[in-house]
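Researcher: Excuse me, tokens okay?
***
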Amino acid sequence: MNRVKAVFFDIDGTLVPLGHNGIPHEVKEAIARLRDNGVKVFISTGRHPEWIDNLGDSEFDGYVTVNGGMCLLSDRKTCIYKKTIDPQDIHRLISFSGHSDLPIVVVPAEGGIFINRMNDEVRYVADLLHLSHFNIQALQNACGKEIVQLIAFGSESERSKSGLMKDILKNCVATSWNPLFCDIIPTGSDKSVGIDRMIEYFGIPLSETMAFGDGDNDIGMLRHVAIGIAMGNAEDNVKKAADYVTTPAIENGVVNALRHFKLL
């Protein structure tokens, strides 16, 4: 195997144990050592940059955000790739919201994330992910903006019965890592696509990549890179997609895997 030159990390449940609000000290040190050794380290997350507030002072070479839909360099400002949701889907969603109780989060590329309504499930997830504030606005405010992601709350059954994906968001796909909500991204967008754009920019071959993840939205990424590593706290379907399963995030799974592959 060629030397690993780029490592991509999911955040929630991977770098940051769920229910926590920061990277464990040992993991922070491991990331710094990787960079010192010449390995590029990247974030690969479902979060928009506006919501990436739990990494402390750890430095990364780039950010694959909103499940591959927007790639930023280390300054979190220079965008090298962006894929947006079809405006026709947004217009259908606005009409749909008039007769649906499903809370929908709108994620514009430029920031200003908002939600159309709150409920107990939204508050629970906000607490779980330490998201301190949701701006409540009508979905009509999405018109004219570049929307890179939507988040739909409610169970998979509720979303299916509503026809949200089949009839409304016809040019999108849903991906999930929590039973209470799903991330919705443009068809053809995926963490693996974002990874390809990032390594193309840095001139790194796919054969020299590694990725860590724990959720369903990480499966494509784990299968795509040269070495896909699932956290011990991942569901079985995620573990089956990986080349290696490490210990849970709360048990320094990232550090243990990096040691296993002799990157530390």
